[in-house]
Amino acid sequence: QVQLVESGGGLVQPGGSLRLSCAASGSIFSGYAMAWYRQAPGKQRDFIAIITSGGRTTYADSVKGRFTISRDNAKSTLYLQMNSLKPEDTAVYYCYASNGGPAIWGQGTQVTVSS
Q1: Long-range CB contacts (< 8 A, 24+ apart) of 21-25?
Q2: Which of 21, 29, 37, 51 is the one with CA 20 to 30 A from 74?
Q3: Low-confidence residues of the chain, pLDDT below 50?
């Protein structure tokens, strides 16, 4: 089973950029579909983007054109490049993995967009 650890969160001004990383260990990373979710205070956890084992991507409308999900199977790492950040992007961002079995989640990394 895969274990996931996110990093790269922090405080950024509106219009700025951040790149999140999710390092995976413990199993064959390339066989998993990987995704990013986020959860703002008092709200439900929302889907942001997914990348299949074959490299196909899908995005939530709220981030389409601003965020890019990618993966490096050689490094067993998932990325989320976030550009043109807005205050409403403030949330804890979670990495997610699935190969058809139970969902696997990371511990989350905080992203705060504020001036």
Answers
A1: 21/77, 21/78, 21/79, 22/77, 22/78, 22/79, 22/80, 22/95, 22/106, 23/75, 23/76, 23/77, 24/76, 24/77, 24/78, 24/97, 25/76
A2: 37
A3: none
